[in-house]
């Protein structure tokens, strides 16, 4: 395999940092710096629920995702009033991932809106959005709990990472240069207890079980590293209060 564009080992993540509380008025907000991919994740409540949750006594969690005009090498056109198929699919993925670990029946009759805005894109934006959104959501629920509205949140973590095959080698956390030329591109979402979702595509030709197992093994190691980074960010936020 040729050296990776930034010199990383095949299984290495890019440098990742979470900046907590970047939006003063949002109960939970996190700026994710994941290599050269930067995503702003925020979480806030609305005191109503969609029709399918009326009468349940519980709430709902919904996610929105978008790329700001300056996020890519060329200006990204704003998606309004309708979003693209890619954006809609990523929004649904973020929502599913968070609902897999947060009990929406415990938040009362309210909707928790999670917004993910890509400030700069260099591959892996959906994975950064999911991983940062868990932090933003956890912080928003902790804020609601401190105000006496709900019990303290007990959700386990969820995180996501991309893996793939580039030049015949399995690699973790693809940047755009790798993602655009990958033989296989796979997004992996998991909790400490197991897998939430796997999205994998052979770009041009099928891939085998051996490569799939190697990708899944490598991805699980990476998400465990992400869980530790999430916990460190929570601990830092608690110490700063």
What does this structure look like?
This protein is α+β, with helices and mostly antiparallel strands and 241 residues long. The protein has one domain (16-240): Ribosomal Protein S5, domain 2. Helix content is 30%, strand content 29%. It has 4 helices and 9 strands, in the order E-E-E-E-H-E-H-E-E-H-E-E-H. It has helices spanning 85-99, 125-146, 176-179, 209-240; strands spanning 16-20, 28-34, 37-46, 60-67, 111-120, 159-166, 169-172, 184-191, 194-202. It has a 5-stranded mixed β-sheet. The chain has a 4-stranded antiparallel β-sheet with strand order 7-6-8-9. Helix 1 crosses helix 2 (125-146) and helix 2 (125-146) packs parallel to helix 4 (209-240). The chain is globular and about 55 Å long. The termini are far apart. The mean pLDDT is 93.
Labels describing this entry:
single chain; 29% strand; 5-stranded mixed beta sheet; 4-stranded antiparallel beta sheet
């Amino acid at each position: 395999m040729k050296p990776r564009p930034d010199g990383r080992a095949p299984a290495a993540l890019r440098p990742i940092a979470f900046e907590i509380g970047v939006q003063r008025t949002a109960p939970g907000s996190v700026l994710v710096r994941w290599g050269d991919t930067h995503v702003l994740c925020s979480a806030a409540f609305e005191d109503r629920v969609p029709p399918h949750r009326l009468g349940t006594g519980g709430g709902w969690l919904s996610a929105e995702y978008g790329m700001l005009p300056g996020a890519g090498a060329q200006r990204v056109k704003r998606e309004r009033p309708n979003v693209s198929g890619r954006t809609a699919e990523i929004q649904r993925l973020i929502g599913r991932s968070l609902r897999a670990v947060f009990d929406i029946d415990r938040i009362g009759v309210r909707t928790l809106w999670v917004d993910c805005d890509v400030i700069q894109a260099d591959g892996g934006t959906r994975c950064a959005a999911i991983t940062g959104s868990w932090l933003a959501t956890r912080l928003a629920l902790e804020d609601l709990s401190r105000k006496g509205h709900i019990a303290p949140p007990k959700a386990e973590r969820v995180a996501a990472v991309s893996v793939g095959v580039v030049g015949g080698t399995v690699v973790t956390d693809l940047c755009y240069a790798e993602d655009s030329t990958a033989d296989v591109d796979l997004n992996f979402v998991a909790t400490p207890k197991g897998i939430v979702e796997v999205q994998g595509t052979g770009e041009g030709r099928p891939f085998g079980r051996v490569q799939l197992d190697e990708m899944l093994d490598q991805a699980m190691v990476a998400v465990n590293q992400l869980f530790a980074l999430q916990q460190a960010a929570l601990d830092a936020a608690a110490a700063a209060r």
